[in-house]
Amino acid sequence: MFKFLSCFLMFFFFFPSSVFASTESGVPQLTSSPIGYSCLILFIVAYAIVMLEELVKLRKSKPVLLAAGLIWAIIGYVYQQYGEMEVAKQAFEHNLLEYSELLLFLLVAMTYINAMEERRLFDSMRSWMVSKGFGYRPLYWITGLLAFFISPVADNLTTALLMCAIIMKVGEDNRKFINLCCINIVIAANAGGAFSPFGDITTLMVWQAEKTSFFQFFDLFLPSAVNYFVPAIIMFFFLPKGVPESTAEHVSAKRGAKRIIALFLLTICTAVSFHTAFGFPPVVGMMMGLGYLQMFGFFLRKTFNGYVEKKTAQAKANNDEATLKRLGSVVPFDVFQRISHAEWDTLLFFYGVVMCVGGLSLLGYLELVSHCLYTQWDPLWANSFIGILSAIVDNIPVMYAVLTMDPVMPTGHWLLVTLTAGVGGSLLSIGSAAGVALMGAARGRYTFLSHLKWTPVILLGYIASIAVHMWLNYDLF
């Protein structure tokens, strides 16, 4: 790899600038030049390494960060040769601003989810489900429906991991049950995230780009539900019967868990209000919501000693050894520690993708793709293809590319591409963050090939969801 980069950089710096064709405005037209092809190859190679993350054991942010730096170094050099450096700077700053808004938004959302996890909210939910002794088939529907309805608020990755932890806990010895449940959870989490601005990074991107309003996302509820239920009903008949053995494990949520949920909902309302009432980016409301959590964290810390003393006295009076033991491990709530536990690899990966795609857009490649997809193709077929493409390539760069192309489409088609980019990743296990995470969490039980076996069934749900959207939201087209 080092030799390749060295040769590439020597080629780049000593390549004669006379080969660049320029437009009338003096801005280089590089889509058909060796430099343009080199940038495209850099992105493709970087993304190929991302897709092989599990094999090469290299975090996905690293190759795209390197590729982004090299692409913009090339752009800077070339534009400087033509005296158009200001154009390149403005393009870079535009992409950086878009990324910064999304970064802060996602950081707040991840902090709230991490706070709920630290308060053991998800552990208590899992404990309750395990203790009820549900059978395989009820658990299949419970975990699937919970994934569908939690993912619009939490992200689909967190939701999928939570539900996977539940089925792994209760179905350790039943490979078929775990496999079908994992597929069901991936489909449900992706479908649930498609009808909410908070369900996935792609829906958030569409909302931030103001291609549709906050409440118009809910027009995708029924198409998303169809996308989930069609394959779920078919797979249900292949589930094993019976009740798994379960171990009694009582887990209680820590102090303040329910109030953090309320603050998270208040934060979402604040973000929506700032956007609808004043036209500010939703990130303004989200950062204010982080202030809610910090003030509540301050309250928990200031009252921590008094709370522990009170509970310890009550436990001693009742000879409650279990509570005394639990109180001995209780620690104060720290907001900044929750921030540090955010998925920084994902956030940095997103930076690399945004900058790579932004660089390729400046070089003119997205304009070419846009012309092919949205001029020569009908928008219905173009947006349906985007969903299938997102099963192979991560839906984040796919959606960012579409938004950067900015084709002229009615709201119905923007909702359609939001739907397809969100649920299309369910077609393959590598098509979404939820699927990739579950292959690791249920290693050996849920695999690429075991998911691929059910791809035709999932494709039926994909087609049905598009048909329902076209019929139900016909007035938006």
UniProtKB/TrEMBL annotation:
Keyword Ion transport listed: yes
A GO CC annotation given for this chain: membrane
InterPro entries, A to Z: Cit_transptr-like_dom (IPR004680), NhaD-like (IPR045016)
Gene: nhaD
Assigned protein family: Belongs to the NhaD Na(+)/H(+) (TC 2.A.62) antiporter family.
Signal peptide: 1-21
Subcellular location: Membrane
Organism expressing this protein natively: Vibrio aerogenes CECT 7868
Protein name: Na(+)/H(+) antiporter NhaD
Domain (Citrate transporter-like) ranges: 49-422
Major place of residence: membrane
